[in-house]
């Protein structure tokens, strides 16, 4: 009886082993017929990814782009002009303060040594006051330049460097601004007798090469320096608008220039 039970157990074990092997074989055959989908490689994933190099301005209409820029530049120009047109706008601002011409600075040091510094101070103050009197003339010309801006100009400025707008203004208004500034500067400087003395002597010195021609007349020198100061302040305003657009009063400026922060 015991032998019979052992025989039955052995037969059962053999049958189980055969069943196990058969199931394994079936599984392998199914794998060969239906191979698993290949996992995409990293390079394939990168290659098929859609391009995201879209301009940050693409979400805005051309009208919105130009509108935001005009608002921002008008605001910046008006702020720059008003900051310079007030008393000490030039004289009290080290960034735009107009010094004596180079050829007078040696004379200034000598004058101070012998107690005549007040004459140099008077001339310096008068020069800066003349610039402060002239700079309000800039507002109309700058705003007009904003109105004449083309679509190409606007896009070049929006996507350009931090001073792209300032350079646009300089190219399109500098000559006309100089023509507006100079008569006002001349009228202001006529009140300063030292300025007239300087013009007489510097004019003669320029003819023999002792003074730069550009510095031979104070009116020209002050006009040029006043324009330089104006564009310095406009560049500062432009940089501020680009860096902190959300401080603008205009919602459109906030949206468009805000998007450019992430370009």
Secondary structure elements and pairings:
Elements: H1 2-33, H2 42-48, H3 62-85, H4 102-113, H5 117-134, H6 138-147, H7 151-158, H8 164-189, H9 193-207, H10 218-243, H11 251-260
Helix pairs in contact: 3-6, 3-7, 3-10, 3-11, 4-5, 5-8, 5-10, 6-8, 8-10
A few lines on this structure:
The chain has 263 residues and is mainly α.
Features:
single chain, 263 residues, mainly alpha, disordered N terminus
**Tertiary shape:** elongated
Query: Any low-confidence stretches, pLDDT <50, length ≥5?
Result: 1-26, 38-52
Rounded average pLDDT:
78
Briefly note the structural class of the backbone.
Answer: mainly alpha
Beta-strand content estimate = under 5%
Could you give the order of the helices and strands?
A: HHHHHHHHHHH
State the major sheet. Answer: none
> Cα-atom Rg, whole angstroms?
39 Å
The number of domains is 1
Cα-to-Cα separation, first versus last residue: 91 Å
Helix fraction bin: over 70%
Q: What's the number of helices? A: 11
Number of beta-strand segments: 0
Structure, described:
- This protein has 263 residues and is mainly α.
- It has one domain.
- It is 71% helix and 0% strand.
- The chain has helices at 2-33, 42-48, 62-85, 102-113, 117-134, 138-147, 151-158, 164-189, 193-207, 218-243, 251-260.
- Helix 3 packs antiparallel against helix 6 (138-147), helix 5 packs across helix 10 and helix 6 (138-147) packs antiparallel against helix 8.
- The protein is elongated.
- The relative contact order is 0.14.
């Amino acid at each position: 009886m015991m032998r019979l039970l052992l025989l039955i157990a052995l037969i059962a074990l053999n049958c189980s082993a055969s069943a196990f092997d058969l199931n394994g074989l079936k599984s392998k055959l199914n794998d060969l017929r239906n191979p698993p989908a290949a996992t995409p490689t990293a390079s394939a994933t990168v290659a098929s990814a859609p391009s995201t190099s879209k301009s940050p301005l693409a979400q805005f209409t051309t009208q919105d782009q130009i509108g935001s820029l005009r608002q921002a530049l008008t605001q910046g120009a008006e702020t720059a002009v008003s900051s310079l047109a007030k008393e000490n706008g030039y004289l009290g601002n080290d960034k735009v303060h107009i010094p004596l011409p180079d050829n007078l600075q040696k004379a200034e040091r000598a004058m101070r040594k012998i107690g005549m510094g007040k004459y140099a101070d008077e001339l310096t103050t008068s020069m800066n006051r003349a610039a402060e009197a002239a700079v309000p003339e800039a507002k109309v010309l700058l705003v007009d330049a904003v109105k004449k801006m083309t679509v190409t100009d606007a896009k070049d400025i929006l996507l350009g460097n931090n001073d792209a707008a300032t350079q646009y203004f300089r190219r399109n208004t500098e000559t006309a601004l100089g023509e507006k500034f100079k008569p006002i500067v001349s009228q202001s400087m006529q009140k300063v007798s030292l300025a007239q003395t300087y013009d007489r002597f510097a004019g003669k010195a320029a003819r023999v090469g002792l003074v730069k021609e550009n510095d031979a007349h104070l009116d020209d020198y002050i006009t040029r320096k006043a324009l330089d100061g104006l564009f310095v302040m406009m560049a500062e305003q432009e940089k501020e608008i680009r860096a902190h657009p959300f401080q603008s009063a205009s919602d459109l400026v906030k949206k468009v220039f805000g998007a450019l922060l992430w370009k």
